[in-house]
Specification:
254 residues
């Protein structure tokens, strides 16, 4: 229905914007979960029930991997969840870095990872519906927000300058921690095509104009390029009010 469509798109948009200004590691991952739940509701509002369930399955695998990797990082970084105190963790956590980035890329819908098979199918089938250009534009904006906060999380945690927090790499020698992470990393790679073959006996053929076919990848690319400039804006003084408004979940809890 139109009401469910509106609520799902606003949920995706709100959670994406809030995640861009958030510094709590677990909150960012929780907000990305909220965004993907909005994606599933968006699929249901279009009548694509099987695709929503398909996205639920693939999302469960790589999101479980994200939360496990986040737990290892928090445990190894002196029980802090503030990503501003991370930075350069790829040197201390090489395996977790690879696995977490794999989950992040899958969340973004990078081709041939688990998230791509369900997310891209929802986007392309949604492009065939005649809801108007506003719905399509908001859908692509929400996709780009997902890429934006995922790349920002990766940059601040693993690539950016050291934030001054403590970090110990003893976590990667604990097989009870690393074992499930490696297994879930494997499922994040192969679960997309396997679940697609199990759920859909016939391959899905979608005819779209070229600009719509490349729309999702275009917005993903623009988001990757715009991440660094937005990262600078987040720290600037003039964005303080926007950052506070987003950090308080648009005042919804109040």
């Amino acid at each position: 229905s139109a009401l469910l469509l509106f609520i799902s798109i606003m949920t995706m948009f709100m959670s994406g914007v809030v995640a861009i200004f958030e510094y709590d590691l677990k909150k960012i991952i929780a907000l990305s979960t909220l965004s993907q739940l909005g994606m599933m509701m968006f699929s249901i509002s279009l009548g694509l029930y099987e695709l929503a369930f398909f996205h639920l399955l693939t999302h469960a695998l790589f999101k479980a991997l994200l939360f496990l990797c986040a737990g290892i990082l928090i445990h190894g970084a002196g029980n802090t969840q503030d990503i501003r105190s991370f930075g350069g963790l790829s040197l201390n956590f090489p395996l977790v870095t690879v696995c977490m980035n794999l989950a992040n890329l899958s969340l973004c819908g990078v081709p041939f990872l688990a998230g791509f098979y369900s997310k891209d199918l929802i986007v392309e089938l949604a492009c065939q519906y005649s809801w108007g250009i506003f719905v399509l534009f908001m859908m692509f904006i929400c996709l780009s927000l997902t890429v934006l906060y995922s790349v920002r999380l990766t940059y601040l945690s693993f690539v950016g300058p050291y934030g001054g927090g403590t970090s110990i790499s003893v976590c990667e020698s604990d097989y009870s921690l690393v074992g499930p992470v490696v297994i879930l990393s494997f499922t994040s790679l192969v679960s997309g095509p396997i679940l697609s073959w199990l759920n859909f006996p016939a391959p899905v053929l979608i005819f779209l104009p070229v600009f719509l076919k490349w729309g999702a990848l275009f917005f993903v690319g623009v988001s990757l390029l715009g991440m660094l400039s937005l990262q600078g804006l987040t720290y600037s003084y003039k964005w303080g009010a926007v950052s506070k408004f987003s950090g308080l979940m648009w005042f919804l809890p109040w």
